[in-house]
Amino acid sequence: MARTPHHSLAGRQSRVYACACRTGRLALAPALLLPTVASAAYSFNFPEPVTPIARETLHIHNEFMLIITILFVVVFAIMIYSMIKHRKSIGHQPAKFVGPTGALQWFWALIPFAILLFIDFVLMGIPAVQAIINMEDTKTKADMVLKVTGMQWKWQYEYPVSGLKFISTLSTPRDQIANAEAKGEHYLLEVDKPVVLPVGKKVRILLTSTDVIHTWWVPQFGVKRDAIPGFLRETWVLIEKPGIYRGQCAELCGKDHGFMPVVVHAVPEPEYLAWLEAQKAEAKTAAGGADRTWSKDELVAEGKAVYEKVCAACHQPDGKGLPPAFPALAGSKVVNAPLLDMNGKVIKDSHVDRVLHGKAGTAMQAFSASLSDVELAAVITYERNSFGNQMGDMIQPAQIKSLR
Amino acid sequence: MAPAFSDADLARRRNAARRLGWLLGAAVLALYLIGLFIKR
Amino acid sequence: MSTATTHAAEHPAEHYPGGLMRWLTTTNHKDIGTMYLTFSLIMFFVGGLMILAVRAELFQPGLQLMRPEFFNQLIGVHALVMIFAALMPAATGFANWMLPLMIGAPDMALPRLNNWGFWLLPPAAILLTLPFTLALFGIGDGALATGWTFYAPLSVQGGMGVDFAILAVHILGISSIMGSINIIVTIFNMRAPGMTMMKLPLFAWGWLITAFLLIATLPVLAGAVTMLLTDRHFGTHFFDAAGGGDPILFQHLFWFFGHPEVYILLLPVWGLMPHVLSTFSRKPAYGYTAQVYSFIAIGLLSVVVWAHHFFTAGMPIPALVYFMFSTMAISIPLAVLFFCWIATMWKGAMTFETPMLFAVGFIVLFGIAGLTGLILADVAADAQYHHSYFVVAHFHYALFAGGIMGVMTGVYYWLPKWTGHMYSEKLGKLHFWLTVFSFNLTFIPQFFLGLAGMPRRIPDYALQFAEFNAISTLGAFVLGLSQLLFAWNIWCCVRGGPKVESRVWEGAEGLEWELSSPPPHHSWETQPTVK
Lengths: 404, 40, 531
Hints:
By secondary structure, chain B is an all-alpha fold.
C-alpha cells in the first residue's frame, strides 16, 4: 500500500539540514541586546539555502538588512544627537526656521531623497527585478514536473509522467500534540510519506487545491506559492544538496492549518529513479486489489487505517466529530442509511455520495479523486460498522470502481 | 465681542455642509452598487 | 431637519437631559468625542485580552489551552476589534474633540449624523463578539475563524460567525463613512474666517486625507463582503472557480480597501506628530507644505499598491514589478515626513514630558515598520517573509508602535485640555518605558521567528521556535498589564488633579490652546483670530 514508509531512505534521517543554525550577521540592531544562548535551535536568519533561488533571496535579504540598518542608525543617530544637544534643560535657545532657505539648504534637504530614490530603484530595485524574472522562469530547461494539491489538511503529490500519486499527512502522534507524551525531534514537521525529488534537476512545481487556499512553503528552497482551488499556479526548485527539507502550509486554511507540514527528501537521481520504480510497482499491486473480492474484516481493518489518516482530524478518532462544523459519524443519519439504491446506483446525499463527492460549502471534500477504490470501499465499510454504527453491510472496491 | 459666526453665516455654512455631505454619501453608495456588478 | 439642526447648534440646549439620555441624545462634539474615546479604550482591552489568550497558548509547543478552531477565532476577531473598534474610533474621537477647537468652529457641521455615527459602534462590536457567547450556549460554532482578511473560499466554508462579522463590518463601515463625511464637510465649510486651507492645522490635514480614503475604499470592502454573503447563502459564484468565479478576486477587493486602511489608521497620527514635536521643541513645525503634499501623495499612492499583500498568489511579471516599485515609491513621501519630524526637533529647546516621550518612541519604532516595509515590497524576499511571523512583527510595528502609541501620544497631549486636570507625569513616564520595553520584547523575537520559517496563524509550532515564542509571550503579558497604568492614569485625571491653564504646554501653539481647559460646553462663543 501507498502508506508504507520508504525504508531505503531511512538511513538519511540523520542528515538533517532543516533548521541549520546561523547566527545572523546582519540581524536587526536591537537583536544584539538579546542574550545569545548557544542553542542549535536558535536562528536569527533564513535557514541554509539549498536552491539557487534561496541563495539569491538570502543574498538580497542580507543586503537589504544592511541597507536598512545603516539608514536606521544614521537617521536616529542624528535625532539622538539633537535630543542631547538641543534640550531646554541645558539652556538651548530654540531656532525659528520652518523650512529650507536658500539654494544650499535646499540642496542639503533634497540629498536624502536622492539617496533614497537611488536605494529604492537602483540598489534594491535592479537585483529585485532580476530575481523576479529568475523566480518566474519555471519552464526553461525544466527536467520534470511535480504536481502539488493542497487539501484540508494534507498535501497530495503527483508525478504526471509516471502517473504516481499519493497523499502526505502529518505523522506526529496526537498524544504529542496534547502534551501526553514527549515531543519528538521533528514535532509537527514530519509526515507519513514524504515527497522525493532528485538533486541537481530543475523541478517545475504546479500547484492547485481542492478546497480552500493553501500555501506550499519550504524555507530552505526560498519558494512559497499559493495553491488556489480551480486555478493552477507554478514555481520551480533545483535542489543542490541531498537532504530532508521541512516546511509548512503558510496560508490559514481552517482548523488544522498548523498541522499540514511539507517534507521533501532530496536524493541523487539513481536513488530517485529506484524509488519511483518501487512506488509504481506498489501502486500496481494496490490497483490490482480493486478487482478481487475483499472480506468484511479486511475492509474494516484497512478502513480503520484510512480513517485515522484522512478522516479523524475532523470527525475525531471516536467518530463523535466536533459539531456543528464537523458532524459526528456515530449515529449519523447519513451513515445509518441504505448504501446504494436497488439498481446499485448512488443515492443522492447518501453515505457513498457524501464520501465520494463531498458536501458543497463545507469542509467535507470530494474524496473520489484523492483516495483509491480500495481505500474508499474500506473507509465506508469501516464507518458503517464502527463507533456504535451497526449497519453490518459492506461495499466492494469493484463497486466503487464501477461508480466512478 | 462678536460671536464666532453670525446666524445667517452659520446657516449658510451648515446648508453647504449638508449638500456636500449628501453628495459624498451618494458617491459612496454609487461605488458600492457599481462594485456589485463587477464581472471578470 | 436643517432647521432643527441649525437651531440646536445655535441656541445650545443648556438644559440637556441628565444621565444616560444625555449621552444617547447628545449632539455636542465634545460629548461624542469622549464617547468615541471611551469606547475605543474599552475595546482596546477586549482585543488585548483576546490576544493574550493567543499568546498564552503559544507560550509552549503543544496545545494547552484551546482547540485550533477557537484559536483561529481569537486571532481574526482580535484584528477586527483592534482595527475597527479600537484604533479607528480613537482617531475619530480625536477628530470630534479637536477639529472644531482647532479650526474655530462652534461644533461639527452635522451634529446629529455625528451622534448616529457613534451609536452604530456598540451594536457592531456586540455583533462581532456575540458568536463567542452564543457558542457557549451551544448555538453555532463560534466567531469568524478566517483571520480578519475573510479570504474566500475559507470564509464561504465558515460557520455563522462569518455572517455576524460581515454584518458587523457593514455597520462599522457605515459608521466610519458617516464620521468621514462629517469631518470633510466640517473642514471645508466651518473654518473660522482667515483660516485658509494652507493654514489648516496638520492634524486636520491628516484627517482630511484619511476621510477621503475611507470614502473611497470602505464601499469596496462592503461590496466584497456582500458578495461573500451572497456566495454563502444565495448561490452566487463570485469567488468560486467551479462557478466561473475567482478566489483571488476577493483578495484584490479586500486589499484595495486593506492597504489604504493602514494609512487610514496612521494619517491622523502623522498629522498629530508635528503638533506634539513642535510644542515640546518650542519651535514651529518644519516643512508644513511638504508635509501636506506628502499626506496627499501617500493617500494617492496607497490606493494603487494593494497587490503587494499577495505576491505569493502568483501574478504576471509586469504586475509584480509594478506593485513592487509603486510600493517602494511610498518610502519617498514617508521619508519626507520623517525628515520634517526630525527637522522640527533640530535646534529646538526640547523637554521630555510623556507626550514627547511617546512621540519620539513612535518615530523610532515606526521607523522600523517603515524600513521592514521597504524590504517586504521586494518580491523575491517577500516570498520568504510573506505569511510568516516576520510580517506579523512588521505590521505590529506599524499599527501598535505607529497607530496605538500615536494615539497614546495624543491622549497624553490633549488629556489636560479635555479634563482641565494634569495627569500623573510619573505614571505616564512609567507607562511609556514599560510599553516600549515590553513591546520590543514581544515583537523583536517575532522577526526572528519569521526568518526561521514560522508561519503565522498557527496554534502550535515546531520545537525550534519554542524559545522565541516563550520570550514573545512574556513580553505580551507585560505589555498588556502595563496598559492598566494607562487606564488608571486617565481615570485619575478625569476624576481630579492639579488644575491646568488654557495653554497647557509652554510651547503649544494653535487655536485649541486659546480656549479654557476644559473648554466651555460650547466652543467659540467669540470670534477667534487666525494668525
